[in-house]
TrEMBL record:
The keyword Transmembrane helix does not apply. The lineage of its organism: Bacteria, Pseudomonadati, Pseudomonadota, Alphaproteobacteria, Rhodobacterales. One of its GO terms (biological process) is proteolysis. It comes from Cognatishimia activa. One of its GO terms (molecular function) is cysteine-type peptidase activity. Its EC number is 3.4.22.-. Residues 151-275 form the NlpC/P60 domain. Keywords: Hydrolase, Protease, Thiol protease. It is an enzyme of class 3 (hydrolase). It comes from the Bacteria. This is Dipeptidyl-peptidase 6.
């Protein structure tokens, strides 16, 4: 049975690649759009519950608009769901991303001018020019110091994850304003140029290679539990978005493993190492 989260089909439309498997609907090539709200929930159904979130500038393929809701697939990770159609627009290709924890879009190239919106780490921007230390975009001006070119990737996912320290925990969250365990891992590895799924079970299946139980854990290794994931920071600590602290936090690795099992969420199910760009297998 196909995973609903990754299957671009509903009761009315489907991707043409599913024609032999999903009969009785219209087969539609997706139309490219980008998110033009600061943040939007990607729902499992119109007026449903949040599966994930999409950030400003992230691109999607739109299959259908029905009663104000757009059925889309995220280009970042293939996740499908529903967003308000008004949250989408046609947009030029991104040139920059927000690499600071968060930023503001100002009315003018002046930090004393009125701010128009707040954007999270990871948002994508189409910059038109650099004006007085601000990146000019269609919506206003963003401090250049908060931006990085989209083609430049940091090399250390843990350093990216630290950007989110103390971010409130939010189930299905993907932003500096609220994030969950898999959202943190996705943000960290995606920024470092590693394709990464949105949910922890998908990440466990798709990311990296399995480590033996007695292998020494190293920085950026991943620990998985049923429904949870954390990143190794050093010999004694991990970082994760967790409901125990209701935030992104450091925690002693052995203490976290014991606590999670003690609270009834079971043992570690796998230990994974991800091959980072320009790295060598160890």
């Amino acid at each position: 049975m196909k995973d609903r989260r990754l299957t671009p089909a509903n009761k009315r439309v489907a991707d043409p690649s599913l024609e032999s498997e999903w009969p009785g609907v219209s087969y539609v090539d997706p139309e490219p759009y980008a998110v033009n709200w600061p943040l939007v929930d990607l729902m499992n159904a119109p007026e449903g519950h949040r599966d994930r979130q999409l950030l400003f500038g992230e691109t999607v393929g739109l299959y259908e608009t029905h009663e104000g809701w757009a059925f889309v697939r995220s280009d970042k990770d293939g996740y499908v769901g529903y967003v308000p159609k008004s949250s989408l627009a046609h947009s030029p290709e991104a040139t920059h991303r927000i690499s600071a924890a968060a930023t503001h879009v100002y009315e003018q190239a002046d930090f004393k001018s009125r701010d128009r919106m707040r954007l999270s780490h990871g948002c994508l921007l189409h910059g038109m020019e650099n004006e007085n230390g601000f990146l000019k975009i269609a919506e206003g001006y963003v401090p250049m110091v908060h931006c990085s070119p989209v083609g430049e990737h940091p090399s250390d996912p843990v350093s990216v994850a630290k950007t989110f320290l103390d971010t409130p925990y939010l189930w299905g969250g993907n932003s500096r304003f609220g994030i969950d365990c898999s959202g943190l891992v996705q943000a960290a590895f995606t920024e470092c140029g590693v394709a990464c799924a949105g949910d922890s079970d998908l990440q466990e299946d798709m990311l990296g290679y399995e480590l033996p139980a007695d292998a020494e854990l190293k920085r950026n290794d991943l620990l998985f539990w049923k429904g949870h994931v954390a990143m190794i920071v050093d010999e004694t600590r991990l970082i994760h978005a967790n409901a125990h602290h209701m935030a992104v936090s450091f925690e002693n690795t052995n203490d976290a493993i014991a606590r999670i099992e003690r609270q009834g969420d079971g043992p570690v199910t796998s230990r994974k190492r991800v091959l980072l760009p320009n790295a060598q297998l160890i």
